[in-house]
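To: structure subgroup
Subject: Chain for Friday's discussion

All,

I'm putting the inputs and outputs inline so they're searchable in the archive.
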Amino acid sequence: MSLCRNNEPYVVPMHYAWKDGFLYLHSALEGKKVDIARENPRVSFCVVPEWKIIEGSRPCDWTTHYRSVIGSGIVSFVEDETEKRKALTIFVEHFTHGAFELPRPMLDRVVVWKIKVDNITGKQNPSPR
């Protein structure tokens, strides 16, 4: 996740989940990234869901096979409990195969980021044929 405050970039890795044109993230309720996003909700992101190092006989022959996505959008913070629960369920489904109960104290300890993506591009190596 890339944010900007006073023309100073700030980049931080975060877990994500994707659904219906929205990128969801979650974090602690407070901190530098939350403060910056509240001041400037324009963000960008990079996701590399697949990668593999391909060895070569010489250092310059090594490469990486990958798929990546880069995008940008506007972040809002989910305040409604029902929507927050749905967003966190998207995370559970993204990272696990089971159903989990999301107790109220857990909901109260996290902030859910909802990014309406307005620009997205992808790249992969090797290129699709």
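Points worth raising on Friday:
Strands lie at 2-5, 8-11, 16-19, 22-28, 42-54, 63-78, 110-125.
The chain has a mean pLDDT of 91.

D.
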